[in-house]
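Lest this sound abstract, we think one record worth quoting, the chain in one-letter code, the fold tokenised, each line plainly labelled:

>
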Amino acid sequence: MKRHLFPAVLVLTATATAALAQTTPGDQFMQSWDLDGNGAATLEELREMRGNVFMAFDADQNDILDAEEYVYFDEARANDVANYEAEQRDQMQAVADGMSLTASDTNGDGVVGREEFLAGTEGWFADLDTNGDGVITLDDFAM
């Protein structure tokens, strides 16, 4: 039954990203990841949201994203990236790449466990915090 939710998740993601296409990558990121809306996404907020993202794509709720589940996750991230052009596309690709199978499968077994996915938050955060101030803000997406 849970597998039938994937098309709905993808449709909702595509609809939401189409609406966000008028915004910058920084705006889109902050709308999704700055959970308290204070203009600064913290490491804790990114960790919490990554947990939510993981649960959304873990169709069988076994705390593992397998190859089939990653197909849907890859499609959703690709849809986000496709809404931008040139330098903005590169920025969104960097955000998306931080959750890819390659970046997340640290033990190389071809699947990503929940703890493995969450453990990637710190490195991803460091990559996104381009000015090194300890939070992600629109300044980190400035061109």
Summary: The longest strand covers residues 64-65. The beta strands are 64-65, 112-113.
